[in-house]
Design a protein that fits this description.
Length: 512
């Protein structure tokens, strides 16, 4: 049975054998994963005996859903659940302005379940909210997002959607984001794609064209034969989309960016492309597998186009599908030569500098590769989880590593990070905007690893990252002042302890 025949997508722990608790070195992981192919090279080590902070599924799921034009996000959960949407709205406004010429706010509502609803059930309140959202906003779609509470009390959001669909004009899309059901927050991407695949990608029938329309149909078929789906689940901004569109147009390809900021009515275009291209396997594999399974759209899920080598590998894989090998080599030669010359001014400052990277699995590994390319020595990586798509990346990093270094697979865990940073003393830290605080308060210059207004992807992204890091390292006074006036809530005894002392080793022997 296909995953998409089920109401709820599987957990990534089950589908990809994903892991959130492991410690190793880059060379150790490269050796462990060598030859594993499409299988995870790790077995779940269990969990930490103490955990401090993580990421809920709602954050990445809402980051995707709030970008959809003509959509209302209806969060079915407790009051306060999904409040991250307030900060995400800035991205929605900027993203819609640069793509559609007009800033717009995301529309989201909450059923705000209370104690009485927990006892008596929240389905009646959900029904009222759906009818009111449809009456008030007349959207194309209403995404009904289930948080933890309805999952615990047994509310059937799919049943409610099916019951009310004939009564409302909007298409009702149930999305299961019950955070307690999985340890891997990246399951959120699967949850959103699951409802898109089940509800918005119905094949539309094609009738025989009239003779006078035959030429137009032929031209449309030719266009689709050169159209590719470029996947973006909010992991890159418009400036990065434009860089990849520029490179792909150099191969004569037309690009359909999907799904963020795409109108729900346009989603069917994804089923008619010649190829789907992943920009991040962590985000994309679930949906690209579905497009291939149901609509015969082949896909490439390998490299993330962050860094010089990975961008070139990414382009070569695409060109091979369209028989454009000679064309892509000419393109790569020009781009790499221009970029390497432009980077020369930054290298003297970067040489000998140590860097620590923290992010979602693929972005952390690809960014570490980029840092090695421009002259940094990577001394540590913390990736939020591990699955099979990282296997090849460990080998790339180990091959270019100046020394063996630590890899911490952890669903955030700032206490562990603080201990590692005290020991490793990097000159630079790259992490998410809300995850740079630990390093900054330790006096380490930090840079955000992802911001939708900045360039990170492709050849342009390499130069822009290098330029920003050069400026950051030239003037680290801000971080030094923070360290002089603030302190983290950890004792000296913790800084002296083994950083992975809370990591359970269940299953470790099976891994050896």
């Amino acid at each position: 049975m296909s995953y998409f025949d089920q109401k709820v997508p599987p957990k990534r722990e089950d589908r990809l054998k994903a892991v959130i608790a492991h410690q190793d070195s880059i060379c150790g992981l490269a050796k462990r994963c060598e030859g594993k192919g499409g299988k995870s090279c790790l077995i779940d080590d269990g969990e930490r005996g103490f955990t401090q902070g993580s990421i809920c599924l709602l954050l990445p799921a809402l980051a995707m859903l709030n970008t959809l034009p003509d959509n209302v996000v209806l969060l079915h959960s407790a009051l306060g659940c999904g409040s991250c949407t307030h900060s995400q709205n800035a991205n929605v406004r900027v993203g819609s302005a640069v793509r559609q010429g007009k800033a717009r706010d995301g529309i989201w509502l909450s059923t705000a379940l209370d104690e009485i609803d927990v006892i008596s059930g929240g389905e009646p309140k959900l029904e009222q909210a759906i009818i009111e959202a449809d009456r008030r906003y007349r959207p194309a779609t209403i995404t009904i997002v289930a948080g933890c509470v309805p999952g615990i009390i047994g509310d059937d959001i799919d049943g409610v959607a099916q019951k009310l669909q004939p009564q409302v004009s909007a298409k009702l899309l149930p999305v299961h984001c019950e955070g307690f059901k999985t340890n891997i927050w990246a399951t959120a991407y699967d949850a959103v794609y699951h409802t898109i695949g089940r509800n918005l990608l119905e094949e539309r029938g094609v009738t025989d064209p009239k003779p006078e329309d035959a030429l137009a149909v032929l031209r449309e078929q030719e266009r689709e034969a050169r159209t590719v789906n470029l996947m973006n689940v909010s992991s890159m901004g418009r400036i990065d989309e434009q860089e990849l569109e520029r490179l792909l147009s150099g191969l004569g390809l037309e690009v359909n960016v999907f799904p963020v900021f795409s109108h729900p009515d346009s989603f069917v275009k994804a089923t008619r492309a010649a190829l789907s291209i992943s920009t991040c396997p962590t985000h994309d594999d679930y949906f690209l597998g579905y497009l291939q399974e149901r609509f015969g759209v082949p896909s490439i899920i390998r490299h993330m186009p962050v860094g010089i080598a990975n961008t070139s590998l990414w382009l070569r894989d695409i060109a091979a599908v369209f028989g454009a090998e000679e064309q892509v080599e000419r393109l790569i030669a020009v781009e790499e030569a221009e970029l390497k010359e432009a980077l020369q001014e930054f290298r003297p400052l970067f040489e000998g500098k140590k860097a620590f990277v923290s992010a979602g699995e693929f972005r952390a590994l690809a960014t570490a590769n980029l840092l090695q390319e421009i002259g940094f020595e990577v001394v540590g990586i913390r990736s939020f989880h591990h699955d099979e798509f990282a296997n090849e990346e460990y080998g790339k990093l180990a091959k270019e590593a100046k020394t063996d270094y630590v890899v911490d697979i952890a669903n955030v865990q700032p206490f562990e990070e603080a201990n590692l940073l005290k020991r490793l003393k990097p000159d630079l830290f790259l992490g998410h905007a809300n995850g740079n605080m630990t390093a900054s308060k330790l006096g380490i210059p930090s840079h955000v690893i992802y911001n939708t207004g900045l360039a990170y992807i492709g050849y342009r992204g390499v130069y822009e990252i290098a330029r920003r890091l050069h400026r950051q390292l030239k003037n680290p006074a801000y971080n030094r002042n923070l360290a002089a006036n603030l302190r983290l809530p950890y004792t000296e005894s913790w800084y002296g302890a083994e950083p992975f002392s809370y990591l359970n080793t269940r299953g470790r022997a099976a891994n050896e």
